[in-house]
Amino acid sequence: MLDLSDLSLVTTPPQTEDKDQGFLKRLFKSTTSLKPLGIFAVDLEMGDKFLLCYDGCGLYTDKNGNPDPDTKIKWEAIAERVALHSPYVLLFNSDFIEAREIQSGKLVQKIEENGIRCLWDGREADGSQPQQARVHAVDVKDGNRTRHEIIEIVPVTDSESAKLV
């Protein structure tokens, strides 16, 4: 990962020498594999809180990479890909899409579908975000590899809560 202050490569999460060291040891010991999938700024105005997304969990850090031991988020399943669709972070695996609020990590919705994959996470080729966030996925229908549906995931609001369709 990159240190955002000077763009140097650092170990993620960084090795700390304070009270967080025990937390990090427990985190890495409790998870068989932590494959990094993405990093997202949570507080866009202040720029001082980030969500590190791994295949098995998420972890909030400050701008210096110091983890918040109270905010580890365990995903419902092992994620294969992650996408930001503000104010949500979307986690994909072949059986479902998990939508979580980026600020709190709270599970908002789980879309179950066999054979679903993220095609485009909304970023432009140069890594920038487009004016309007979009995420595209492909759904393999009935286990038939010759029949696919391309879907766009967008947040909609109903009378009870925000959902993704």
What does this protein structure show overall?
There is one protein chain. The chain has a 4-stranded antiparallel sheet with strand order 3-4-5-6, with no helix packed on it. A 4-stranded antiparallel sheet has the order 7-8-9-10, with no helix packed on it. Strands 11-12-13 form a 3-stranded antiparallel sheet, with no helix packed on it. The chain contains 1 helix and 15 strands. The chain is mainly beta. It has one helix spanning 20-30; strands at residues 2-3, 8-9, 36-41, 49-54, 57-62, 73-74, 81-85, 88-92, 96-101, 107-112, 116-120, 135-140, 148-153, 155-157, 162-164. The model has no long low-confidence stretch (mean pLDDT 73). The chain folds into 2 domains: 1-74, no CATH class; 85-165, no CATH class. The longest helix has 11 residues, at 20-30.
The separation of the N and C termini measures: 32 Å
Globally, the shape reads: globular
Strand content: 35-45%
Order of helices and strands: EEHEEEEEEEEEEEEE
Spans of at least 5 consecutive residues whose pLDDT stays below 50 are none
- Based on CA atoms alone, the radius of gyration comes out at 17 Å
Whole-number tally of structural domains: 2
Q: Give the overall average pLDDT.
A: 73
Largest sheet: 4 strands, antiparallel
* Strand neighbour order, sheet with most strands: 3-4-5-6
Helix content: under 10%
Structural class: mainly beta
> How many distinct helices?
1
How many strands in all? 15
GO molecular function: guanyl-nucleotide exchange factor activity
Pfam family, one: CNH
Protein name: CNH domain-containing protein
Domain CNH: 1-126
